[in-house]
Amino acid sequence: MLLRPDRVRAPVIVVSCHSGRDYPQAFRSQSRLTAHQLRFSEDAFVDDLFGAAPLYGMPLLVATFPRAYCDANREKWELDPAMFADTLPQGVRVSGPRIDAGLGTIARVVANGQPIYREKLRFHEAEQRIETCWQPFHDQLRGLIDETRARFGRCIVIDCHSMPPVWGAEEARPAFVLGDAHGAACSASVTKKMEGAIEKVGEKCAINNPYSGGYITKYYGNPRIKVDVIQLEVPRVLYMRDPDIMAGDEYNMMRRKMEKLITLFSAAFE
Q1: 227-243 as b/e: b if 16+ CB within 10 A
Q2: What class is the 2-70+133-269 domain?
Q3: For the chain, is the Cβ count within 10 Å smaller at the N or the C terminus?
Q4: CA distances from residue 128 to 7, 173, 215 in whole angstroms, order as listed
Q5: The whole model's pTM is what?
Q6: 260: pLDDT confidence band, cut at 50, 70 and 90?
Q7: Distance CA 165, CA 174 (A)
Q8: What is the C-alpha to C-alpha distance for residues 124 and 30, in angstroms, rounded to an integer?
Q9: Over the stretch 108-142, which tens digit does the pLDDT of each residue have?
Q10: Where are the domains of the chain?
């Protein structure tokens, strides 16, 4: 789903690739998990937290399909052969840290490690999901990047996610995390401006620790051609009850804070 502003004001694209929650009935029937358990892989509410982006002149691209169904933040063909009843064709990547963990383009497990499927899949099922979900999403993202560069001479992509707790109990308020692939995907000046904006809304910010960026960040980010891509992780504990997947007491306050952050991003890059 692409939400465009009435007037584009800044060379910034806001992306939420893991907040999709449209679970096909056939997929739910294939799964051994409950409807609630399938949602454990979602970056729940992230699309809503950053939903004001079009009001401030920035397009918002949202994957409406769930991450557990097809992961847009993976390479096109990252598949675990153990998931399939038939042999995978040549050209499919069948090994690697993400695949081995069960988190390929078509995931074997949800985020907490629970297996998704009752039985093995057929390759044509994965192919259909990738061609109808992954490919259109990336076609839109590539088109937006090209369009933005043509208009402004540069493009900044903010890939928004949420993260579970990763610090010890001594951390009173966890930090937001910006991932720029250690400078390979985003220029230092852009990362610095985003860090400053986060601090202006009263939040702490860490850089590349513990997340340095996923496929979208690393594939599209190329500061040499003025395409800066950065991953933004928001701690879930600040706005939702996890694993209940319900908005927490601070949700409305965090949503207003993210709207303020969006205005700062727009102003920083106009």
Answers
A1: bbbbbbbbbbbbbbebe
A2: alpha beta
A3: C
A4: 35, 42, 21
A5: 0.95
A6: very high
A7: 8
A8: 15
A9: 999 989 999 999 999 999 999 999 999 999 999 99
A10: 2-70+133-269
